[in-house]
Amino acid sequence: xxxxxxxxxxxxxxxAYDSMKPYLHDQYGNASxxxxxxxxxxEALRSARETIAACIGATPDEIYFTSGGTExxxxxxxxxxxxxxxxxxxxxxxxEHHAILNSCRTIRELGIKVRYLPVDNSGTVCPVSLENAxxxxxxxxxxMFANNEIGTIEPIKKLAKVAHANGLVFHTDAVQAxxxxxxxxxxxxxxxxxxxxxxxxxxxxxGFLYIKNGxxxxxxxxxxxxxxxxxxxxxxIASIVGMSSAxxxxxxxxxxxxxxxxxxxxxxxxxxxxxxxxxxxxGSENHLPGHVSLSFREADGEMLLHRLDxxxxxxxxxxxxxxxNTQVSHVIKAVKVPDEYAEGTIRITFGADNTESDAVEIxxxxxxxxx
Length: 371
Ligand code: PLP
Known about the structure:
This protein is of the alpha/beta class. The protein has 13 helices and twelve strands. It has a seven-stranded mixed sheet, with helices on both faces. The chain has a three-stranded antiparallel sheet with strand order 9-10-12. α1 runs antiparallel to α9 and α5 (127-133) runs parallel beside α6.
C-alpha cells in the first residue's frame, strides 16, 4: 500500500508510541492526586507541556490540552458568545475547515454576526480585505494557518498585525501547519492557535490550544481545576506524552523533511506534465511541504480515488471530513477552479514514510486511469 493522505492523518511515529506505553498501563496515576504514585504522571504532564511550548515559541502556561483541532476551534469560536455585546462580530475566511465553519454557524444561530473573507485564486486571504472588513463591532478574527485542501499558507503575521492594530484578538487554526513548518507564536503575534497531534505523527484525539498570556477566553469545560480551570477533565497523559514526543521529533527533522517532500512533489508533477494530461495545480507557491492538490480536466475525482484505491494507493478528493460529500468543496469553489476541472480534483499529501518511488508510482497510476 502507498499511503499519501497525510493531511487526513499520519502514522504514529515509533518514538511517540514507545513514549506512551508506560502511561497506558503501569503509570496510571491521576496527575491531580498528591500521593507519590501520581508523581510520574504529573511530571510527564509538566515535561510534555514544556516540550510543546518550546516547539512553538510559547511558554508552558500558554498551552492548554484539548481533544484535538475540532475542540480547540470550537472553544475559540464559541468563546465569542461571551464577548461584550458591542463586540458581537467574528471575521473568518471562506476556506476554513468545518470545525470553524460549523462553529460559526452555531454562533450565528445565537446572535453573533460572522463575516467570511474571500480568497484569491491561490487561496490567500489578503490583509487589506481584513482591514476593510473590520468594524467597531468586530471582536475576534480567525484565519487558518494553512489550508487542509490546497495547502496554501496564509500571511498570518500580517493578518495578526491588522487585527491587533484594530484592538482585536487573532486566532489561527494551525492544525495542518504545526510540526510541518516553523512556527513561533510570539514572533507571529497570534493570540490563539489550534493544533492536533494526529496531523504530525502523534496519537489521535489529542491536541492543544495556545492561549497567549493575558488573552481572556472563556473556559471551555467546567469541572475540576485542570488546564488552569479552563478545560476541566482528567488529563490523557499517554496521548499528551505521545503528542510531545512526535512534535519534538518533527520539529527537529523539519528542514530535511521539507527538502524530501518538495522533491516528491516535483517528481509527481513533472511526470504528470510529461504525460500530456490536462490539469491545474491548486494552491499557492507558498504551500505546505508535500501537499499537492490537482484538478484534472473533464475527470471525476471520486472515480479516480476509487480506481487508485484498487491499486493500493490512498489519496483524497478534498478534506477527509468532506469525503461523504461528493459535491465540489467550498475551498475549490472559493479559489474558482474552472467548472471543467473542479470535479476532477484530488489531494495527494506526502508524509514521513513516503519515498521517491511512491511519487513515481502514484503518477503512473493516475496516467493509467486517465489516459
Ligand atoms: N482544522 C483543520 C485545518 C484540519 O485539517 C482538521 C482536520 O482535518 C481539523 C481542524 C480538525 O482536527 P481534528 O481531526 O484533530 O479534530
